[in-house]
Specification:
This protein is α+β, with helices and mostly antiparallel strands. It is 31% helix and 11% strand. It has two helices and six strands.
């Protein structure tokens, strides 16, 4: 199991909190990528966001992209969550179906919503 992790029991479901070792460089690349997406698509999508910006789904198949590298870096944390839940898993069957970005500024927010057909969601 990963050391220095916490389970925050704020809601009926636990919130697992992790910090990527290389979070500074990943955040720098992701921020650039996300703001470039926003510049190309100012309108974005309307989902659970109120006044904020919601990107289209990321292309996770581009193995050289920051979004793909980020997803791969989450793998050990996802497996750790499954282990802590006590779930018996086949790693080959774990799939990230979607990933996107949201930019919320002052007075922007997201309404209560669900992610159907998902075992885990992350922010």
């Amino acid at each position: 199991m990963i050391k220095n992790s916490e389970i925050l029991k704020f809601f009926p479901e636990p919130v697992f909190k992790y910090k990527l070792d290389n979070y500074n460089s990943v955040n720098t690349e992701l921020i650039k990528y996300i703001y470039d997406l926003k510049q190309k698509d100012e309108k974005g999508l309307e989902r659970s966001n109120v006044h904020g910006w919601h990107s289209k789904n990321f292309n996770l198949k581009d193995t050289s992209s920051i979004q793909h590298k980020f997803l791969v870096s989450l793998k050990e944390y996802i497996f750790d969550v499954f282990e802590k839940y006590g779930w018996n898993i086949d790693p080959k069957k774990i799939v990230c179906t979607d990933m996107w970005a949201i930019i919320n500024k002052k007075n922007n927010f997201n309404v209560i919503h669900t992610h159907p057909n998902s075992y885990l969601s992350a922010a």
